[in-house]
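Help!! Second protein's tokens look totally different from the first
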Amino acid sequence: LLQIQNEESVILFLVVWTVTEITRYSFYTFNLLNHLPYFIKWARYNFFIILYPAGVAGELLTIYAALPYVKKTGMYSLRLPNKYNVSFDYYYFLIIVMFSYIPLFPQLYLHMLRQRRKVLHGEVIVEKDD
């Protein structure tokens, strides 16, 4: 998978994850110390607006770039017959994971937007019961 590790999409999601985690854990640390600078709070609830979609794009592009290699090598797949009597195809699993972003990403992103509104603007968000 060395060729996949050199994809620009890997650099994209690694940079995004790094900035996200530095921001998140700075927020947690200062919050625990009861000394939360406004900039850290602001960064925690604003950086995600750009970082979240960029990170998802990096992840999806990396998975997509890996698909031909995974299919060719049968990586992490288990074929029948075998002693466990089960079959698992990692290639199709990755495709399912990619499609799972369609319903999951908007839910998580909208949740963060609601949290942002609540924390930064003091708005009370009333959740609907399903």
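Here's the second one for comparison:
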Amino acid sequence: AALSCRYVLCEVVSEDPRCRQCIEDRAVGLAVRDAVGRVHGDYGLACCSISFTVKYLNAYTGTVLLRCRKDSYRLLCSALPFVRQLESRNQRYPCSLNTLHVGGTIRTCQKFLIQYNRRQLLMLLQNCTNEEERQCIQKSLLSCSLTEEQSQSGDEEDDDGPE
């Protein structure tokens, strides 16, 4: 039987525009492990490290999808607010991780992310200053959907959703 996992969808929030360039799997993974270690000690770190991985990352939107074991996702989530920075090439960039959604499959997280992006775009649309901006955002809104190819994703280990 497949190990039961939880997927934690986060957003990297930073005032520093240079932070985007260092949003990479390794940097995010290290920052999360560091926070877990500080908050929960060695035991918590060991629990969270089993099958912990950065599953998906989009540096442009600052979206990160973390995977961990179902029985340790609460430990992981409780440590995420303590992520203070990402480190890359000996440079430190202050940032925080905002948890958006916890799901039982990658697909539920994708669906949530599409709805979330749509809401963000609608807010942008309301604050548009010119027609060109409006059309760009409306075009982005129309592209907020799951394609057939994505829906066949093989990561449907357990579909019982969060408790």
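Reply: Different proteins will give different token patterns, so don't panic. The CA atoms of residues 72 and 89 lie 30 Å apart.
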